[in-house]
Amino acid sequence: MPVGQARTSVIACANQKGGVGKTTTAVHLAVALRRAGRRVRLIDLDPQRNAVLSLCEEEQDAAPEGAGWWVWSACREVELWSPAKRDAELPASPDFDYVILDCPPNLDGGTQRALEASDHVLVPLQCEFLAMEGLTQILGRVQNTKPKGDVLRHVHVLPVMLEPASTLHQDILEDVWKHLSDRICDTWIPRDPGFSEASSFGRSLFSQNIKSIGARAYAKLAREVEDGWT
Ligand code: ADP
Ligand code: MG
Q1: 192 lines ligand 1 (CB under 6 A)
Q2: Which of 1, 101, 117, 202 would disulfide-bridge 86, Cβ 3.0–4.6 Å?
Q3: Separation of 24 CA from ligand 1 center, angstroms?
Q4: CATH code at position 86
């Protein structure tokens, strides 16, 4: 978190498509920030509870003294979150540096409220056919939920499951870059089969294989968030 920023930073991980890496991103960004000593609350807004389930065996004791670790309806601690509480509680909450919201795969109520409540919208982007069209939809929704002005500054597009040698991926990324160059994260997440393996054990890739390319990429994303997202 940038020096001097005392306020909780709320990051919604959103994309109306399923299977594009929202939960993986929310979980691994949360774990990476926590490993960096930040106080993180991860809130699973998807009724399928994938974020909760994919962390249910995660070692939660390794945090620095006093660090908070809250996963909504997770195994160890339970925190029910009502978006209506955000205005009343979050800005003044000294308990967390980051609140990360894992959104369901649609643009309905849960995602809508998350977009309203968030300071940043992190959009995982799979470099596949019609990627730009999908992005346009969610960007339109963000524009409708934020006050007028430079609304897109809230948005951070994260290329995920990237295969850098794939010409298709390169072409799609180039196309997205043309439209949204300043909103694309510096970090990109490579395809790493370790993610699905780790989640099947209820753990993050950090605890399964900290040296994996996937874990290293999310550690880099956490540094980017800390350095630059105000
Ligand atoms: P969403 O929350 O958008 O539905 P998930 O995060 O659950 O998507 O990811 C869908 C599937 O893709 C999961 O099996 C997950 O393990 C896998 N996955 C996510 N990110 C990666 C990645 N970078 N490399 C390989 N597999 C990934
Ligand atoms: Mg999900």
Answers
A1: yes
A2: 117
A3: 5
A4: 3.40.50.300
